[in-house]
Automatic annotation (TrEMBL):
Pfam families: PBP (PF01161). CDD domains: PEBP_bact_arch. It comes from Demequina zhanjiangensis. Keywords: Protein kinase inhibitor. This is YbhB/YbcL family Raf kinase inhibitor-like protein. One of its GO terms (molecular function) is protein kinase inhibitor activity. NCBIfam families: YbhB/YbcL family Raf kinase inhibitor-like protein (TIGR00481). Belongs to the UPF0098 family.
Amino acid sequence: MQLKDLALSSPDIPDGERIDDRFAGQVGSETPRMTVTGVPEEAVELALVCHDPDAPLPHGFTHWTLYGLPPFDGEVVEEIGRPGLNDDESFGYVGPFPPFGHGTHHYYFWVYALSRKVVGEPTREEFLRDYADAVIEQARIVATYSR
């Protein structure tokens, strides 16, 4: 795997800043817009994952998995992708909802350029285990949220 030109950005969730309440779980979990650039030519698919490693669970909490995204630069269109199972056993984006008083949580939004297609709707852990060897490049943004 190489770290080259692949980049992830969001007009809704700036890297390093606090996530706006409208994208949080207690307000309605509006799905943030994400944009991918620098997709390598050899990529056959993109995958997107949002994970909170600060959640008080053994493996943190996965808020979003999205597979089957076309390997092109541009805005991520959730309806084109195939959502995987999140840690609350739902499909699709689940906004931040850390416990009151638990401090600041960090939300890692990862994009992966893959050399092969993802089959089915794996959890984050299954995806990382089964497709680590297929990652050509990866990029992330990190934002925070607390209640």
